[in-house]
Predict the 3D structure of the following.
Amino acid sequence: MEYFLQQLINGLTLGSIYGLIAIGYTMVYGIIGMINFAHGDVFMIGSMVAFIILLALGITGGSGAFVIILALALVVIIAMLISSVYNWTIERVAYKPLRGSFRLAPLISAIGMSIVLQEFVRIAQEGRPKPIQPIVTGRYTIMERALADGEFAVTISNMQIIIILSTLALMTAFTLLISRTALGRQQRACEQDQKMAALLGIDVDRTISITFILGAILAAFAGLMFFMYYNVTGFSVGFLAGIKAFTAAVLGGIGSIPGAMLGGMVIGLVEVFWSAYFSVEYKDVAAFTILVIVLIFLPQGLLGKPEVEKV
Amino acid sequence: MAAAAKETTFKADSRSLSPAEIAKDLAGAGIITLLLLTPIVFYKTIMNQGTLLLDTRLKLVLSLTAAVVIGRLLLHLFVWQRAPRAGTAKIAAPAATDWRETVVKWIVPVLLLIAILLPWVVQLIPGWERRGLGIAIYIMSYIMLAWGLNIVVGLAGLLDLGYVAFYAVGAYAYALLTTIYFPLWFGDGIIPWTFYLVLPLAGFLAAMWGVILGFPVLRLRGDYLAIVTLAFGEIIRLVLINWFSFTKGPQGINVPKATFFGLPFADEPGSFADFFGLEYNRLHFFFFIYYTILILSIVTYVATNRLRRLPVGRAWEALREDEIACRALGINTTSTKLTAFAIGAMFGGFAGSFFAARQGFVSPESFVYIESALVLAIVVLGGLGSQLGIVFAAVLIMGSFELFRELGFLQRILPEGVEPVQFRMLCVGLAMVLMMRWRPRGLVTRRDPTVYLKEKKAVSADLVSQGHG
């Protein structure tokens, strides 16, 4: 039971990260109907930028709590800004000119872009993984029980608390943004019918750009959290995280934002429980298998609408 | 790039801006570039005795930004400033120009002749006897792989990002059959599983895997299919790494190299050289391998060309253009896709088996996602469906990979510690994006229709790409 609870906490933490990335996939898919294959790499850019800025600021675990909070706030803002610029540029350079081209063109372009981003970071920062000393330390013990072979304590680290709470906060803010503001309304309108939205005076190009920026903001935040949680990052982290987040988006029903979050949680939990109870080596296989199974049996996802193909 | 941009049909091409607007645009581009480069390029992390330090590279950031701004200025001045063209789509290609017909007619035999003579020509260049052959084999294997993938991506329009999985199936089929399973089952007394025995089997196994994977997922939309095949490729690789007792995991398997119908290439009695009374030369093996892959490639080429003329091949191409119309016409889309998938996988299996027999060693390292992406890039650059285009694209990409190694002069302008070889995948990625932007139907845009009424009209691929063809 204690073991289960501990894994549940770990799974929710990981799931939060996947969920945040998945929203980016789902929103872009919702509005222009393509998979932004490079989104995982935008997440990677976010985590690399966060890593570099933290290093430049010279923050370590030993700095005072106030300094750390201030520095993290700064890092979050910079990482979000840079990632947004990246995603905006990607959209302008690689996707926008291809609207109206043949079916596979944007996807191939996105694959090319994903290679470009990875290689760019690899060349600029070398291929080795970048480790860092933990910055946010400390944990709380929730439950303790004496077992035959010592004590087993269920703990939740400060970092996990930060990740789960900030994800919740970000999600709430984001849901409000989509459902209450003019921006969100435009976004939803474009999702439903771009032509009609344009006729009603919505700048569709601008709305699409904003969608990419919003996705990048969430991905950058996820990147920072990922990096602070594992204390390591590198040019290739975006690939796996990207596929898993995409799985999450599909599982939740692509196009549905709460679905993406739910899917992220499910994927995070499955991965953690699989590693805990079966085998660590095959944890990625488990995630990929879920993707395949979901697509076959539940292609519209948990919260999605069944897709109707129109001529 | 300027030449490519001429063909462009996107908006930027028909705008003409005032100097003030250009200045504004350039300033914007400069700021964006600076923002893109600042953290990632400006700071360089250095590992120093276990701690990470930061170094700065201001000059590099500024020069890259300057390059982007100047490049954009040049584009503004010379490319984008032209008056808008009336009507972007060319409706018909000019009536059959004679020399083109001649080129099309002769290009295949000429290329074939070059391919056959190549190893002998290479021998005439001192210092390139072995390297030249090695590169030729390398390029040829990618041509074959790309031709296989072309059936799936180019003809049937199914984006397969896990093609390397079938390559792996072929390679491991060869490795496991020749080293582990055959002696276990039959003892060493009978003729061992040679390359020629394994080859069809490897193709069959890969095709089976194609069916197993394809059957459930082919009902999906195109982009979902891409991700599922990608996931499948990764699953195969992870299983190969982790199933230690079966595949020896990351250590890989040493396998016997291909033999000339049972005659090994070695300096010993009973070998190829001994049997034919030749002096032993290591090049014999390279010659043999080169002609093997050449024959395999030709088989792939011819088979694909024949298949294209069969009903199933026509169904593939129809499927690529419009799936809904296909279904309306009564084509069974699932089985059509499945055959494309299985046949493409089969050629991947052949190539994989060949890879193992050439290399004498297989490990999961060789079957990473980036290989799939590379083969896909060749198909894309070749023009999604054009077999000749693939030859040129493969020679271009793989040849330039080799060139990157040679580029000593680039080393001088690049900062220290950066080798030109590092940039090769970056260039491939960029090429994919640029191709989609300017030449979405590939370098060779001309495609001959497989069916025609009375006279043969070349369809300009620009039309096909926009859905007119």
In short: The longest strand of chain B covers residues 43-48. Chain B touches chain A through 66 residues (CB under 8 Å).
